[in-house]
Amino acid sequence: MRHARVLWTVVVMFLMILSVAAPAAAQAKDDEWEYTVAPYLIFASMDGTLGVRGLEAEVDTYTLSNLQGGFLGYFEARKGNWGFGADVVYMALGSSTDRLNIDPSQAAFLFLATRRLTPTLDLQFGARWNVVRGRIEFKDNSVVLAGTVVEETKQWVDPVVGLRWKQPLGERWLVSVPANVGGFGVSSSIAVDVFPTLQYKLGRHAWVGGGWRFLYMDYETGYEDGVPIPGEDAFRYDMITSGPVLGVAFRF
Known about the structure:
The chain is mainly beta. 9% of the residues lie in helices and 66% in strands.
């Protein structure tokens, strides 16, 4: 059910973007480089399943109360109709219950090439390098696993393709909606990233804005038909990270 909801979210978002995008062919601007640097914060929750060495736990944490460290930022360089960019997401969280201590950390380094299709629509394609650490401590003395600690770090790379719609609203307002899909079974079964924002221009180069980030990853290794393979280093990361975003952007 979760996979179906995610896929429908992506399909609807892409159809909305295509329906409002201007049909005119894109025209290159000046033959000069344009740059964007945008640090931002996300007040996110993580909801899903973390499996480490075949042992699994349900994760339900919020950055406001469980954040141990993090960094988020975006960089883009563009010349005419072509450009490239990088988006960095790193969050280390920790949560505790009567039964478990759970410490997931997620780093996602997204590298994209951009091709302008219309004045308001870009095609984006590239790869996301994921580095995920999972640690589970079973502390409930009433269970057999009491005192057991499992920890593992996995890295994988997903191909990514998506669209970005950008629409000015007057002279000072801007709506931006990038959305991409990745994985395709190469590493993750599927990875979905949707990031709508509303931005306001403060001056010649500075913008301030907010929005919502939705990032879903479904990755597993060492499993067969959803069951850990005995003797294998089984790892599962079936997780939704989502929440409101605040940030600034500098364009020059």
